[in-house]
């Protein structure tokens, strides 16, 4: 028998350690130590009801356990075999206690559709994919459905593109199908470039066949015989696994001529990108594949009319493709039941930043930010206070406390001033300066702007300079209006999605954290203590014992003071490296 | 490798693969056959998954344990890499996180040999497409 005690950060903070020790003591006292083991586990993703103790093998799930409950668990449950009703999870609707956690699937906030095979199958063995119903969807499509029927299912399912903008996938396919041509192309956009985003890489590395299968289904639906995957060269393992997968699919006749004995032929090859952010934009991506500079062009014409080599081309992102086989197998009705009214299915997010459970998660659309950050994500690191979360990478915006209960979907995030983007989620805590955050993203877009249109090339550079100015304490209040005006102009006049969205981090921080901007420009202070030019290291006289530790570690001899006397930091000399603060054992040094 | 010529062929192939996986396990020793999967995406490898995988391959052999070690993709628990999933015969799979060489050794000695769980389990906190109605 095993007792599993949650050692996730949330439960840890509410004394799960004490529960563990008390359980071990109780078992020891009853002479049961060799029969029952107490194990510390990772996060159950149910922090709201923590600390959690799970009894195996009977799957009893105890919630909000106190260290004092250890005795009852051992005496009642272990010895007498009676479940302790008051500690069981109570179904919020029926108010009934749930005895077996197998019946409480609803506490599992995640649903893995795109990631269904990631971490289960060996990605370099096609047989393992086939064993989990791989290529069954393709088989059914080719032998039992017309292209129109396939497109109808995808349209009916309400599936929207996961690349960022959320364009309905079925409609995109329909447009590509309608455009007549001797040759058409299916392109998979695997040019994942947002800082902190890695869901596409994980899918390609963990389940490459799902993308190949879906691209072939798409090829059949729109009438294309060639597929191209545009993947960045910085993803060598993803490239290797795709190559292995393509070879194996060929050997089985699941790619190539007359797939599964039908008239349909389809082949897929790779195109390696050099890792420019702008090449995630579909027209730039196509130009890059053609061997030209990765620069966007004005739409229309859309790629569905004139794309790769001037032929109708359907571009979808990795995650968009990876959902397709499941939609075919489970049906549109099944898929439609998941998600919100206008955004169906699930979304993969890469959780990063100041969050405990950094990782890759997949949740149904409509899950709230609070559930993602505080339950699945296990809350903020080191018990700090949540400040904001940046969704949509450098094109998105930051969302704050007041947005935590917004159900995540394409439209709600836009209404809240951000966007879905590809699914990066960078969590920030009270120590993050929002002006610096906006500057960081602008630094990225300035670097990645292709330079074709002037609003993006020049405007973003000016925005960056202005933000830098403010962080250095040289800004004034009128700069804030200039920031906003310039942002709006860049948004309105840029050629492609990169420039049209790059000022978003500035606008959303201006909207949500105006007080921080004002503190920077008017008071010349950085409330989070991040902007070096606006802060000062200071020794609190009452706390200083004169140990000289700070003075010895200071690389520029900015600290003076005799042994056992109060020390002083000369702000003129100080380079703000923070070494003294780290060294001080008496919390005498602060940033102000 | 022979080509798959129709949907019926594909389905036959799937059953063959499943049966073969099954018999492969049964042929060796169904009572003691352990399956070990190591998460080997770029992030896992960067965190040391390769060394862990090599350790399992080498040590199973050396300690005379029947089993297979395979690589798999990202399990999503980046905060706890390297991650390893162990399936003992007749039991639900268990995922262990933060697997360094010391923990890998404990996994073999305690969990695989004795069936005793050890610290560092990562609970399953998601639904699969099969469990979703």
Structure explained in plain terms:
The complex is a heterodimer of chains A (592) and B (133). Chain A is α/β, with parallel strands linked by helices and 592 residues long. Chain A folds into five domains: 2-107, Glutaredoxin (3-Layer(aba) Sandwich), CATH 3.40.30.10; 126-330, NADH-ubiquinone oxidoreductase 51kDa subunit (Rossmann fold, 3-Layer(aba) Sandwich); 346-429, Ubiquitin-like (UB roll) (Roll), CATH 3.10.20; 434-521, Up-down Bundle (de novo design (two linked rop proteins)); 536-591, Alpha-Beta Plaits (2-Layer Sandwich), CATH 3.30.70. In chain A, 38% of the residues lie in helices and 15% in strands. In chain A, the strands form six sheets. Chain A has a five-stranded mixed beta sheet, with helices on both faces. In chain A, helix 5 (136-144) runs parallel beside helix 9 (208-222) and helix 17 (454-471) packs antiparallel against helix 18. The radius of gyration of chain A is 28 Å and the shape is flat. The two termini of chain A are 54 Å apart. The mean pLDDT of chain A is 92. Chain B has 133 residues and is of the alpha+beta class. Chain B folds into two domains: 1-29, no CATH class; 31-122, Glutaredoxin (3-Layer(aba) Sandwich), CATH 3.40.30. Chain B is built from four helices and six strands, in the order H-E-H-H-E-E-E-H-E-E. Chain B has helices spanning 7-28, 42-46, 49-62, 101-114; strands spanning 34-39, 67-72, 84-87, 94-96, 121-122, 126-128. Chain B has a five-stranded mixed beta sheet, with helices on one face. In chain B, strand 3 and strand 4 form a beta hairpin. The radius of gyration of chain B is 16 Å and the shape is globular. The mean pLDDT of chain B is 88. Strand 7 (110-112) of chain A pairs parallel with strand 6 (126-128) of chain B.
Structural class computed from helices and strand pairing of chain A: alpha/beta
The number of helical elements of chain B comes to 4
- The quaternary organization reads as heterodimer
Helix fraction bin of chain B: 40-55%
Ranges of chain A where pLDDT stays below 50 over 5 or more residues in a row are: none
What is the H level of CATH, i.e. the homologous superfamily of the largest domain in chain A?
Answer: NADH-ubiquinone oxidoreductase 51kDa subunit
Count the strands of chain A?
Answer: 20
**CATH classification class of the largest domain in chain B:** Alpha Beta
Examine the coordinates and then state which fold CATH places here, giving the name of the CATH topology of the largest domain in chain A.
Answer: Rossmann fold
What percent strand of chain B?
15-25%
